[in-house]
Automatic annotation (TrEMBL):
Tagged with keyword Iron: no
Membrane topology: Multi-pass membrane protein
PANTHER family linked: PROTEIN TOLQ (PTHR30625), TOLQ-RELATED (PTHR30625:SF17)
Taxonomy of the source species: Bacteria, Pseudomonadati, Bacteroidota, Flavobacteriia, Flavobacteriales
MotA/TolQ/ExbB proton channel domain boundaries: 96-217
Designated name of the protein: MotA/TolQ/ExbB proton channel family protein
Key words of the record: Cell membrane, Membrane, Protein transport, Transmembrane, Transmembrane helix, Transport
Organism: Microcosmobacter mediterraneus
Amino acid sequence: MMLFSTIQDDTELLTDGESVEKTLSIIELISSGGTAGMIIIAILFILLVVAIYIYFERLFAIKAASKVDANFMNQIKDHVSNGKIDSALMLCVQVNSPVSRLINKGITRIGKPLEDINTAIENAGRLEIYGLEKNVSILATISGAAPMIGFLGTVIGMILAIFELANAGGTIEMDTLASGLYTAMTTTVAGLIVGIVGYIAYNHLVVKTNKVVYQMEANSVEFLDHLNEPS
């Protein structure tokens, strides 16, 4: 009976020990990093919000810029061939896309040497590309700066851990090192996450922008070829 009672007591202690399981939420993990860690996490969170906003704002703008009616250039060539310059200009204004604005610029130069028309279209194209790439460079900056900010938190966390260790009086306790280690690890992970998001978003927008640029170039060449055709 006594042996059974002892085994039962041990089982209850084991059960109680297993039931006391420490869990840690993301908020608790961040707050455990101390003031320095929370400040760096807040900075990284702001950068993440900025990166996401720029990505979707530019994505929608680039998608809108890439929408061109397949029959647009045929209509332009018909108007130009028939001498209906005003109708061609009106069509460009109605479409209102990077391609139509380039063609508009070329139409307004009709009658001048072909080289001058080409130069005018190229200059207008540079402005259109600049507009498409608006704020995209910020994503590249965030993708490079975020991991470095996270590593800054790592260094700060390790300094705090070493400081606590130096003042421990010869006794090393994990609770003493916990705050510094939390700062080091959480900021590193957060910095890498923000950096990866910024990097992927930047490269995706670059690919989308290049497609619009190629579209602009193709339509510009088609327009110039039409002007160069013998009457």
